[in-house]
Amino acid sequence: MGVWYFGAAMGLLAFLGLVMASFATSGVFYGTGLALFAFGFVAIFWLIRRGTAPSHD
Predict the structure, then answer these.
(1) What is the dihedral of CA 44, 47, 51, 52, to 10 degrees?
(2) Would the pLDDT of 2 be above 70?
(3) How does pLDDT run across 9-46, given as a tens digit for each residue?
(4) Which of 2, 7, 28, 39 lies at a 20 to 30 A Cα distance from 46?
(5) In sequence order, what DSSP letters do the residues of 1-57 get, joined into one string?
(6) Is the pLDDT of residue 57 over 70?
(7) pLDDT band for position 3 (50/70/90)?
(8) In terms of C-beta distances under 8 Å and separation of at least 24 residues, what long-range contacts does 29-34 make, across chains too?
(9) In a 10 Å sphere around its CB, with 0-12 CB exposed, 13-18 middle and 19+ buried, how is residue 17 labelled?
(10) Residue 39's closest CA among 6, 5, 1?
(11) DSSP symbol at 53
């Protein structure tokens, strides 16, 4: 269940990054917002990969 919470938090972080970038008044905030979005996006796809990869036990 903790993975679901982490995924939801990363989705919220990615969304907030996009909102931050869209309302940015300087390049620093724009870049930070895009970086937060990219981090959240990559983390979500990492969770998908981890959850669907075949097990090599």
Answers:
(1) 60
(2) yes
(3) 999 999 999 999 999 999 999 999 999 999 999 999 99
(4) 28
(5) -HHHHHHHHHHHHHHHHHHHHHT-SSHHHHHHHHHHHHHHHHHHHHHHHHHHSPP--
(6) no
(7) confident
(8) none
(9) buried
(10) 6
(11) S
* Cα separation, 54 vs 39, whole angstroms: 24
Find where tokens 């990363």 sit: 10
Question: What pTM was computed for the model?
Answer: 0.84
- Of 51 and 12, the structure prediction assigns the larger pLDDT to 12
Classify residue 57 by its DSSP letter: -
Q: Residue 5 is encoded by which pair of tokens?
A: 């919470």
- What's the residue count for the chain? 57
Neighbours of 14 (CB within 10 A): 19
* Cα radius of gyration rounded to whole Å, the chain: 14
